[in-house]
Amino acid sequence: MQKKLTPYPVIAVLCTLLTGACASIGSPDGGAYDETPPKIVKCQPANMSANSREKRLTLLFDEFIVLENASEKVVVSPPQEEMPEIRVAGKRIHIRLKDSLIENTTYTIDFSDAIVDNNEGNPMGNFTYSFSTGPEIDTMEVSGILLEAENLEPIKGMLVGLHADLTDSAFITRPFNRVSRTDSRGRFTIKGVAPGKYRIYGLQDVDANFRFNQKAEKIAFDTIIIEPTCAPDFRQDTIWADSTHIDTVRNIPYTHFYPDNIILRAFTEAHQDRHLLKTERPVPDMFTLYFTGPSDSLPILKGLNFDEKKRIIVEHSVANDTLTYWLCDTLVSNKDTLLFSLTYLDTDTLGQLVDRTDTLELVPKVTRSRQIKERQKKTEEWEEEQKKLKRRQKENYIAKENPHLREDLTYKMQPIGGISPIQNIRFTFAEPVARIDTTAFRFYKQQDSLWTEEPYLFLPVEGDLRSFMLYAEWAPGNKYKFEADSNAVRSILGKESIAFKKEISVSAEEEFCALFIQLIMPDTSAVVQLLDNGDKVVRSSKSVNHRADFFYLKPGEYYIRAFIDKNNDGEWTPGDYATGRQPEEMFYFPKPLTLRAQWEIEQDWDVRGIPLNKQKPEAITKQKPEAEKKIKQRNAERQRNR
Fold first, then answer.
1. DSSP type of residue 285
2. CA 257, CA 169: separation in Å to the nearest integer?
3. Is 90 exceeded by the pLDDT of residue 446?
């Protein structure tokens, strides 16, 4: 006989569920919000325990917890070559160390602020779990800031480590003894440090082996020897009576660890790995090779289906990392496929430059036949338009030359607007220039309503086959005119320029301002740079007798930085670990300067007057600090609203 189920237990269960839902934590009418951060109930083995050999660790909390951004924030020290397994299960964090444990060593697992409760996200605060494989546990700490050497940007997520081996080779051959990771402010704290002497390094560890062995890795190093110490200290704790009145200020004793003000400057060494990145042949007459790094020499090209000794002109960047080959012989450029071998310097697995030979096959994106078809189509459209005009105008129709019968040599002119008296005009042509007829040029200055000829120079830009500069004596508030007849400029591919006439206006004197900076520093050689609000260089000036002058500035807001130009090349130079050379020092003036028309401002600047980490203005700092995790205090807000 089948027993009939009574509905009452089901109803009772439903009522229980509904009652629990109505009283759930965090609901608008279900009681107070949970504002209690997670607490450690038990650790296995115990936190700060000695003589532990356990590789499986468990942390038990008083509520369900979550690990936020564990891969970025949780750091195990000493660094583990085989990644530890860290997982969350309800109220527990399970950790399994896979590396062998080192004798008489303190292990720390720094969770930073990654631990929050599962309900409301209440942060536990910075928490570090420690144990020792020996009879004593080390508790010293060292801390500081890591910045980008070139622009003083805080670097997030970069390793900072200590080596007890003080030799230079330790950074290359051995993993760190202790390690930490920088936060969004570039700050780091290395914990569990034993008394002794150390050298400190920063490392952007590309291959995750905790040593510097790839030239592409960003690094920081210092020659100072660190000896961690500590001393008793006090910090002030303010208790507020309400939102505006202080109740009590208490002095809270704590242990202060030193050094706590280390500043490291990170850089990437100049000799980057060199590989062939990509090739392009947009049109039949040229192709470009892109490399990932510089070289002192050009590659060797040998044609396999064409004669490379035909007229081929190579246009290359200063570092020889971008090479454009212009094919001046139509027997070569008309080939739909170019097949050639290329022997070039390439970085091998040991980081050395060696010869490598590749066979390359290049096809133009726009073929010669397509170019001819497109030109024919434009010609037909133009002829049809001319027929319509002829029918409309009849006797008044004037025949014109077909503009599509020839390809003109195009150019760009910069700047195109009003210039300052210390600027000059740059003309950049679409193709390398083979010939210029300067007798076809004319340069005028407007005086009243008349144009009078003025002296000028039209000179090639060194190292650039396509660019020329127009130099002249530019008087403020005046207008100038530059003219050229057709066919004045001819490219290496036979294209010729059309006639052009360009007017150039020079802004009036009263539209400008000036800035004079007096540097207070012992160094004799510096380059001062004015920046816009995007941290981009607007103007540079090499200091003379600790002074840098900037005339004819446009009014606006400027930021200032300067670097010590030790090698006098006018450019910021990174460091080199092998030779022990530090990157050139960079400094920022800590606030913007607003310049108005007709102003002349004198500004003294003590470049070392404040620490590096406090110099760069927040407005142009791109790496913004993350908001500090805090309990939301929603119960107090709710009470105020009531």
1. T
2. 28
3. yes
CA–CA distances in Å: residue 272 to residues 106, 159, 218, 291, 611: 37, 21, 11, 11, 31
Q: Is the pLDDT of residue 11 over 50?
A: no
What's the Cα-to-Cα distance from 289 to each of 28, 132, 281, 304, rounded to whole Å?
64, 56, 9, 17
In whole angstroms, what is the distance from residue 590 CA to residue 610 CA? Answer: 9
Q: How many CA atoms lie within 13 A of 394 on its CB side?
A: 0
**Distance between alpha carbon 150 and the CA centroid of its chain, in Å?**
10
The C-alpha atoms of residue 612 and residue 146 are separated, in whole angstroms, by: 10
> Which structure tokens are listed for 224?
């100072």
| pLDDT of the residue at 51 | 96
User: How far is 233 from 89, CA to CA, in rounded Å?
Assistant: 39
Mean pLDDT estimate for the chain: 89
Which three-class secondary structure state does DSSP give residue 265? strand
Are the C-beta atoms of residues 182 and 157 closer than 8 Å to each other?
yes
Looking at residues 189-205, what average pLDDT do you find?
Answer: 97
3-state SS, one letter per residue, for 68-113: CCHHHHCEEECCCCCCCEEEEECCEEEEECCCCCCCCCEEEEEEEC
195-221 in b/e burial notation, b at 16+ Cβ within 10 A? eeebbbbbbbbeeeebbbeebebbbbb
- Residue 278 clears pLDDT 80, i.e. is over it: yes
What is the C-alpha separation between 56 and 84, in angstroms, rounded? 10
Most confident of the following: 250-254, 512-516, 638-642: 512-516
H-helix segments, 98-198: 170-173
Higher pLDDT, 249 or 9: 249
Task: Determine the pLDDT at residue 403.
Answer: 67
Q: What span, in angstroms and rounded, lies between the C-alpha atoms of 114 and 209?
A: 24
* CA gap 499, 71 in Å, rounded: 63
- The mean pLDDT of 339-348, rounded to a whole number, is 94
Helices and strands in the chain, H and E counts: 6, 43
Contacts of 550 (CB under 8 A, 6+ apart): 514, 515, 516, 517, 530, 539, 541
- Centre a 10 Å sphere on the Cβ of residue 223 and count the other Cβ atoms it contains: 8
The helix or strand, by DSSP H or E, that contains position 267, with its residue range, turns out to be none
The structure tokens 């850089």 sit at: 267
Backbone angles phi, psi at 58, to 5 degrees: -135, 130
State the average pLDDT over residues 162-167: 97
Cβ atoms of 36 and 122 within 8 Å: the answer is yes
Cis geometry, peptide bond prior to residue 78 (ω within 30 degrees of 0): yes
Kindly list the distances between the CA atom of residue 519 and the CA atoms of 51, 54, 496, 550, 583, in Å, as whole numbers in the listed order.
Answer: 57, 59, 51, 14, 20
Bridge partner residues of 502 (DSSP):
482
* Residue 426 token pair: 């740059």
Q: 235-259: per-residue pLDDT in tens? A: 887 777 666 777 788 888 999 999 9
Q: What is the pLDDT of residue 6?
A: 42
Query: pLDDT tens digits for 551-596?
Result: 999 999 999 999 999 999 999 999 999 999 999 999 999 999 999 9
Instruction: Report residue 25 as tokens.
Output: 């934590």
Torsion of CA 344, 349, 352, 355, to 10 degrees: -20
Q: Which residues contact 523 (CB under 8 A, 6 or more apart)?
A: 564
